[in-house]
Amino acid sequence: MKAALVTEWGRVPAYTDVPTPQPHEGAQVATVEASALTNLTRALVSGKHYASKEIALPAIPGVDGVARLADGRRIYTGALGYSGMMAEQAVVDPRGAVEIPEHVDSVTAAALPNPGISAWTALSHAAAVKPGDHVLVLGATGVTGSMAVQLAGAMFGADTVVAAGRNPERLEWLRSAGAHDTIALGEQDLSARVAEMHARRPFDAVLDYLWGDPAAEVLTALAASHPAAHYHPTRFVQIGSMTGPTLTLDAAVLRSTGITLCGVGIGSVPHEVLGRARTEALPKLFDMAAAGQLELRTQPRALADVAEVWAGGEPSGTRVVLTP
């Protein structure tokens, strides 16, 4: 069969012939209909992700996607082992899969779970956002950040959602999709805007998809505008590191405020929360997308174009989805 294949860490996958995967106990071979090219998929086969050590090369990338079982059911699932989802066929376990409603197309169904489940997990578990909360999303113009902006109000009842990002067109769109205010990174003073907003009404949660200097600026601004005699808990949730893997932070920022830091990623979320994400959140996300209550821009591409798409990067706020 045809598949994308990575033979060296950090190399662009090749579209090539590979052996047809073989089923094992409890799993079966399914026909792949779509697999999203996510940041996680890229990172895992770069060799630099903390979970890369669990992958053996050569490997077919694609951590999840949409497949059709022999009985005709269409499911969202993760791939097992060597047989990733960027292939004509993959080994899947139907027991851990989510059946896709007929009113959701395969491209959308492949693109939605990664940002949707990530945003839902950050909002519900790590940030514990509740009705009436004041939320800042740092890196809001990306795929997952924009999903978090939409879900913060629509699903969790946040009273105010502030979106910070670089793409001015996406920021303008986010105002119609759930953001009550925006911060244009690179054009506006991030520290000053965050400090002013936090002094007026403290943020209850910050979802950070950038890390690096922007995150350090936000954390420092939260502390600078926080009266020393007043305690207000702010949950700072680290989810992505698009601007760098490290930051420098004065220790006093954490000692002088009610800021708590945590992250959302592989290994940081309890199994029961992940289970709820699949059984409770994902079906609702599919229904919201079908009803036009969530917007997710997708760019379908043929699997044969994987090398070109991989090397070319992803358009801002758009999820590339590969179809065999």
From TrEMBL:
<dbReference type="InterPro" id="IPR011032">
    <property type="entry name" value="GroES-like_sf"/>
</dbReference>
<dbReference type="InterPro" id="IPR051397">
    <property type="entry name" value="Zn-ADH-like_protein"/>
</dbReference>
<protein>
    <submittedName>
        <fullName>Quinone reductase</fullName>
        <ecNumber>1.1.1.1</ecNumber>
    </submittedName>
</protein>
<dbReference type="InterPro" id="IPR020843">
    <property type="entry name" value="ER"/>
</dbReference>
<dbReference type="Pfam" id="PF00107">
    <property type="entry name" value="ADH_zinc_N"/>
</dbReference>
<dbReference type="InterPro" id="IPR036291">
    <property type="entry name" value="NAD(P)-bd_dom_sf"/>
</dbReference>
<feature type="domain" description="Enoyl reductase (ER)">
    <location>
        <begin position="10"/>
        <end position="321"/>
    </location>
</feature>
<dbReference type="GO" id="GO:0004022">
    <property type="term" value="F:alcohol dehydrogenase (NAD+) activity"/>
</dbReference>
<dbReference type="InterPro" id="IPR013149">
    <property type="entry name" value="ADH-like_C"/>
</dbReference>
<keyword id="KW-0560">Oxidoreductase</keyword>
